[in-house]
């Protein structure tokens, strides 16, 4: 495969990863919303009817963990993660690009370790047939597996980002590294907010 072919392949893979991650974050948001609605209904039943539907605290905990794991990939692709940039803003462009790459490597290593131990937890729950110590008695491997799949997907997305950013670093394509891994500037955030406001006005 030629140099251009490899670059196009990685760009296409990242495009589809972005699309799938967008779908995942919508699903995560829907899960969080359903959890909030269930808690609301449970509170109303307890207040007005004198009984509880039960399991709201347990199910909301599962929903929260799963939603976070499935939202991580999209947040990283959109550069929504937070980094301390006090010195970063005054450093040379090339050094910033290297630091962006190092930050991406550090994040990938950290998430890889978390995913490994998450897999151990889910596997142990499956082997032992562990259930929640609640009235629902939920088999713990079920929410843990869904949580783990989100982390595995995040690892895949990070691997694609690392491959593309490493290729860009080797070829001196600093703009691509900045577009993929650099923290969002105030100007970018303001432009995005302005675009969202324009869409809302046009939609109205």
| Class from secondary-structure proportions | mainly alpha
Percentage of residues in DSSP E strands: under 5%
Instruction: Please provide the ordered H/E string of secondary-structure elements.
Output: HHHHHH
Mean pLDDT: 84
Q: What share of the residues lie within helices? A: over 70%
Specify the overall morphology.
globular
How many E-type strands? 0
Over the alpha carbons, how many angstroms does the gyration radius reach?
21 Å
Can you summarize the main beta sheet?
none
Q: How many domain regions? A: 1
Q: What is the helix tally? A: 6
- End-to-end Cα distance: 49 Å
- Unreliable stretches covering 5 or more consecutive residues: none
In short, what is this structure?
This protein is mostly helical and 204 residues long. It is built from six helices and no strands.
